[in-house]
Design goal:
Blueprint: H1 22-30, E1 34-37, E2 40-44, E3 57-61, E4 64-67, H2 73-83, E5 109-113, E6 129-133, H3 160-170, H4 177-185, E7 212-213, E8 217-218, E9 246-252, E10 291-295, E11 315-318, E12 327-330, E13 334-337, E14 341-344, E15 359-361
Length: 368
Amino acid sequence: MAAPDTGQPTGPTNRSDPTDPSDAVTAAGSGAAMASIPGGTAVIGSDHHYPEERPAHPVNVDAFEIDRFPVTNAQFAGFVRATGYRTVAERPLDPALYPGAPPENLVAGSMVFVPTPGPVDLRHLSQWWGWTPGALWRCPEGPDSSIDQRLDHPVVHVAHEDALAFATWNGKVLPTEAEWEVAARGGLEGMPYVWGADPEPAGARLANYYHGQFPWRPDLGYGATTPVGSFPANYFDLFDMAGNVWEWTQDWYTNEHPEAADKPCCVPNNPRGGDAASSLDPRQPQFTVPRKVIKGGSFLCADSYCRRYRPAARRPQAIDTGESPWVCWRLGGLVLSPGTGWCRAGVVMIADYCRVVQGHRFAVSSSM
């Protein structure tokens, strides 16, 4: 699965034209746009960035399929119309799960990003995140907001439970962390970005991460979600694998990756991460909500603050949260099992990052 010696990526030959993403938006709405990811051995993680990404290590991943786009507001609205489903953000919070929380915060709602009036100390994120009663997937900034003009944007304010419900309804699953990262890399093994080795050149518009002075003055065209497929696809023809919104995976979070196997025979096959108990935050023992891995970064990832719009980047996300501009998901449906042809996978699902925006991207797990 490694890139060839020429430095050119491996992947499908029918990659969409990155200068004309309009076909991507149309395909995203069709619900039929999936990409086949080849199985093999790949190196995931990184030794050169944040501690939780270490160490870089090889994994074996079977072939799978994954949606080319995150789930949109229009798609999620169809699910809600068909089922009458109410998301976690639409239900009051359980006080037992949030000891010490002010009573006024224990109401239906979600966290919302609010730009600051000017430069601030970036160590205190409470300056730009606030609990907003009434914020939910159809009202991303609160009761007075709407998705009417954002039907082709990734759905947000969706918790892991909501993602599971959507996935079950669709008969698809979430990708594992390893599957998601392999898909995001697009055959460019060892590269820090989904597009290659170098940072985005000025004016290139390769991904929807924060351009400007975070968290108060974004450049024109940035600082918010964008329609899915607005930026170039990677070399597996997947859109929005860097930025726009974080995405859930099915793996429980661990503080670091396992050590790399010292022999080819010992490389893990289709790894699944840790367990619910070990995913809890040891720095906040009063909180007992387990955490999943989210991947991909969001439109709020700024180079000055959070350079996590890279394929190796990973963060923990409490499974009950679905904040405004950060998290989404995409679906998967079929897995290619070696020697057995196509078979239908089980029903689970995927999501994205910390009480902010939530959406999800689904993939099929070959070991379901």
